[in-house]
C-alpha cells in the first residue's frame, strides 16, 4: 500500500466523521481521510444496505478516487418492532429521544440495536464493497450523558450496561459500537488490498 493515499468519507455528519477519523488514527492506517460534504441521494428503502449502496452509486461520478459513505440506524426491537430503523434520521429530527421514551414508557423491558453499513468504492478494483456492524442493548429509562450524538443518550449497550453511549468516550464507544465494528472490517480490507 502506498503512503499518503487519499480516501474520502462522504458525510454531512461531523460526529460520524470524528468517530471514524479517531479509529483511522488509532489503527495507523496509511490513508489521509478527507471529509466530503456533498449530497448523495438518500432513497427510502427497507434496508440500510440498500440505502448505503444507492448513496454510493449516486455520487460515483463526482469523486475522484476511493471513497465511502455510511448509513446507520437505531432499531427498538421491543416494544417497537424495529422502529425507527430506516427512518432514524427523520424520527430523530421530529420526536427525538424524548419522543422515543414517551412511546415506550408503559413497557417494562426494552431491546434495541444499532446497525451500520459502510459502502466503499475502491478504485484499484473499480468495485463496491459493503461492511456491516451491529451492537445490541436496550433503551435507557431516561436521557443520560452529553457525548456522542443522535440516540446515544438513550442507548445502553449490553457490553457496558452501566452507561449509555453518551456517557462513553469516543474511544470507548468505538470499541463496541456498530460503526466501530463495521469500520474494523473496512480497515482490515484496506490493509490487505
Ligand atoms: P450522513 O450525511 O452520513 O448520511 P446522517 O446524519 O444523515 O449522516 P444516517 O442517515 O446514517 O446519518 O443516520 C440516521 C440517524 O441515526 C442519525 O441522524 C442519528 O440520529 C442516528 N444515528 C446514527 N448513528 C448513530 C450513533 O452512532 N449514535 C446515535 N445515533 C446515531
Question: What does this 3D model show about the protein?
Answer:
With 193 residues, the chain is an alpha/beta fold. It has a single domain, classed as Maf protein. It is built from six helices and seven strands, in the order E-H-E-H-E-E-H-H-E-E-E-H-H. Strands 1, 2, 3, 4, 5, 6 and 7 form a seven-stranded mixed sheet that branches. Helix 1 (14-26) crosses helix 6 (178-192) and helix 5 (170-176) packs across helix 6. The longest helix has 15 residues, at 178-192. It is globular and about 55 Å long. The termini are close together. Bound molecules: inosine 5'-triphosphate. Residues 11-13, 16, 70-74, 88-89, 92, 114, 148-152, 165, 177, 179 line the site of inosine 5'-triphosphate.
- The percent of residues in helical segments reads 25-40%
**Could you say what the CATH topology is called?**
Maf protein
Distance between the termini: 8 Å
Order of helices and strands: EHEHEEHHEEEHH
Structural class: alpha/beta
What is the overall number of helices? 6
Shape: globular
Q: Regions with pLDDT < 50 over 5+ consecutive residues?
A: none
CATH C-level: Alpha Beta
The average pLDDT is 95
User: How many strands, what sense, and barrel or not for the largest sheet?
Assistant: 7 strands, mixed
Which CATH architecture would you pick? Alpha-Beta Complex
Report the radius of gyration as a whole number of Å: 17 Å
Bound molecules: inosine 5'-triphosphate
Proportion of strand residues:
25-35%
Number of DSSP-assigned strands: 7
Amino acid at each position: 500500500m502506498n503512503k499518503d493515499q487519499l480516501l474520502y468519507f462522504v458525510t454531512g455528519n461531523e460526529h460520524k466523521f470524528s468517530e471514524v477519523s479517531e479509529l483511522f488514527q488509532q489503527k495507523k492506517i496509511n490513508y489521509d481521510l478527507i471529509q466530503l460534504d456533498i449530497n448523495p441521494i438518500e432513497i427510502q428503502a427497507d434496508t440500510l444496505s440498500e440505502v448505503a449502496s444507492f448513496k454510493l452509486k449516486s455520487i460515483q461520478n463526482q469523486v475522484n478516487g476511493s471513497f465511502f459513505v455510511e448509513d446507520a440506524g437505531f432499531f427498538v426491537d421491543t416494544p417497537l418492532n424495529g422502529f425507527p430503523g430506516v427512518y432514524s434520521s427523520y424520527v430523530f429530527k421530529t420526536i427525538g429521544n424524548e419522543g422515543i421514551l414517551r412511546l415506550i414508557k408503559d413497557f417494562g423491558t426494552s431491546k434495541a440495536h444499532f446497525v451500520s453499513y459502510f459502502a466503499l468504492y475502491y478504485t484499484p478494483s473499480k468495485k463496491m464493497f459493503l461492511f456491516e456492524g451491529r451492537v445490541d442493548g436496550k433503551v435507557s429509562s431516561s436521557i443520560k450523558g452529553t457525548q456522542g450524538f443522535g440516540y446515544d443518550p438513550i442507548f445502553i449497550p449490553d457490553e457496558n450496561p452501566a452507561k449509555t453511549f453518551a456517557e462513553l468516550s469516543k474511544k470507548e464507544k468505538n470499541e463496541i459500537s456498530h460503526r466501530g465494528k463495521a469500520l474494523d472490517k473496512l480497515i482490515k480490507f484496506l490493509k490487505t488490498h
